Amino acid sequence: MAGGAVIENLSNRKLFVIFAGLLAVQILFFLVGAWYAPSPSSYMEFEMISCRDETKGLSGEWIHRDSCHQIEELSEFTPSSFDLREIVFIAKMPHARDGIELEYSPWFQFLLGVLQIEVEYSEHFKYVPHAQIELEVRMGYREHASKKNDWKELATSNVTRILECTIAEEDKKDGGTYNCDMLDLFELGSSSYPFYLVNIRIPIDQHACQYNPKNPNCQIGKLSGLRLIEIHQNGGFTLVWLWTKTLMTPIVGACLWWYYNRINQLARNPLLLERAILYLGLSLAILDFPIEWISLTHRLPFLLLVSDLRQGLFYTVLFSFWLIFAGEHLIDDTTRNNINSYRFNLSFIIIASGALLIYDLIERGVQLYDPFYSVWSSPTGSQIAYVAIFISAICTVAYFGFLLFKIVRVWTTIKHKRSAQLYQTSENRRLKVESVIYRFKFLMLFTVLCAGFTILAYFMKQYGEAQLHGDEARSGFLTGSTSAFFTGTFGMCNIYVLILLAMYAPSHKHYRGATQLIDENDDEIIDDPSNQHTESNAMTTFLKPSTD
C-alpha cells in the first residue's frame, strides 16, 4: 500500500459515508438486473421442413416455403437416384407467430444455432456409434427492402460433425428413436439482418456406402428429421447492459484521469502498486466502453471476438494486480517495488491467458468468415482445444493456491505485528497503525469477495455457453434468470476498482512534495514537522516480515 494514500488520511466518518453510498449502489446493480432485465438469452425452435429438389442443388436456387415440394413422410420417400442430395431441409428464421412475421433485431447481438438429428431405430439402416455426419449448409439473409423470396447468400460450407446417439434396450424396435447429442451448426457474431434462411443437405451416396461403410453419412442410421434450435441474446437484457456500461464509462474515465494526475504530480516515480492500479483502471475502462452501440447501426461480425479479448485483458490485469497487491505487503525492501520480483508468480497468469487466447482466436477468428466452423469438429482442433483448456485450468489452480497462500501470510503478519512492542510505545503510533490495519482488512476482505464473485461469474458464463452448445440449450444458465447476478457482479468489479483508484491515490494533504519513501522506524518520523519532503509508507513497513 502506498504510504500517504487517501485511505490513510480520510476520517472514519468520511470513509463510512463513502462505503455506505457504494453499498447502496451495489444493491442497485443487483436490483436493476432482478427487476428490469430479462434473462440474458432466449431460444427459438424450428422443425426443419424436408423438400425435394430434383436439381440436387446444382441450380443454385434457394429452397424456401414457396418453392418447396414438401416430403410428407421422409421414411417413405423414394429417391430418384443413389444420391440423396435431392432432399433438402429448410428453416426460415425467425418463424411467424399468430400470423405475424417476426424479425431479428441488432439488439440480439449474436445468433447461435445447434442442430438436433432425429434418428429412428432400423434393422436395415443401422446407426454405428461415433458416426461421421457431413452436411452441406447454405445460409442466406433478406433485408427489409428486399422482395419476399429475394435471398442473398451469407455463408456456405461443408460441415463435418461426429454424431453421438444412445437408445434404451426397450426402444430397439421399429419406431423407436435414438437420443442424439446436439451438434454445433453456426454462430454469428452479430444479428445484422431481420430474416435468415437455412438450407441443409445430407449427401448420402448409397452406392458408395456399399463399398466403404465408413464414408461420411453411411453409418448415421435412419433419419426421421432435423430440428434447429436458435439462441440469441435478449434485446431487453442488451438494453439494460448497454445503459449500465454507458453510465459507468464516464465515471471510470474521470476517476482514472484524476488518479493519473495525482501520481503524475508527485516528485518521485510512481510505485509498482500505483502503476498496477492505474493499469487495472485502464483495463476496466476498455471493458466498460459500450462499443456495442455501434452494432445497432453497423454490421460488426467481429464483436464477439472483441468482447472476449476485452474481457480476457481485464481478467489478466485483475489477477496480476491481486498478486502484486498481496506481494507488496510481504516482500522486504530489497525486492519491493520491482516487477521482476513477480516473474514466477505472473507466469501462471501469462501461460493461462495465452492458452485461452490461442483457443479463442482459432474459434472466433475462423468464424468471422465461416460461421459453421467449430474447433471441436476435427480431431486436431479438439486436441488443441483440450490442451489449451487443460493448461489454463492447471495454471488457474496453481495461481489461486499461491494467492491464497499470500493472503494467509498477510493475515499472519498482521497478527504478529499488532503485538509488536514497537507500536505500543506511543499512543499516537498505535492509533495510526490500528486505523490503517482495519482499513486494510476491510479492503482485503472486499478483494476476496470480489475475487470470488468474479471467478464465479466467469465460470458461470463459460458453463452457460457450453450449455448453449449442448443438450441443455433450452434450460441453461444463460436462458434462465441470472441477469441480477451478472449485473451485480459487473457493478462489484466497477466499485472495487473505483475504490482502489480513489483510496490508493497519493494524498496531497501532507505528501505532495514527497521525493522519497522512508520507513517508520521510530516515533519521531511521524511527529517531526521537518519531514515534509518525505513520504511515509506506514502500512508497507508495518507488514514487513516479523523477522526484520
How would you sum up this structure, described in words?
- The protein is of the alpha+beta class.
- The protein has helices at 6-9, 12-35, 206-211, 235-264, 272-288, 292-295, 303-327, 343-367, 379-418, 427-468, 483-503, 524-527, 538-542, and strands spanning 41-47, 49-52, 69-70, 87-93, 96-97, 100-101, 111-120, 131-142, 152-163, 165-166, 179-180, 183-188, 195-201, 222-233, 517-518, 535-536.
- 45% of the residues lie in helices and 17% in strands.
- It is built from 13 helices and 16 strands.
- The strands form five sheets. It has a six-stranded antiparallel sheet, with no helix packed on it. Strands 1-14-7-12 form a four-stranded antiparallel sheet.
List the helices and strands and how they pair.
Layout: H1 6-9, H2 12-35, E1 41-47, E2 49-52, E3 69-70, E4 87-93, E5 96-97, E6 100-101, E7 111-120, E8 131-142, E9 152-163, E10 165-166, E11 179-180, E12 183-188, E13 195-201, H3 206-211, E14 222-233, H4 235-264, H5 272-288, H6 292-295, H7 303-327, H8 343-367, H9 379-418, H10 427-468, H11 483-503, E15 517-518, H12 524-527, E16 535-536, H13 538-542
Parallel strand pairs: 15-16
Antiparallel strand pairs: 1-14, 2-3, 2-4, 4-13, 5-6, 7-12, 7-14, 8-9, 8-13, 10-11
Helix pairs in contact: 2-11, 4-5, 4-11, 5-7, 5-11, 7-8, 7-9, 8-9, 9-10, 10-11
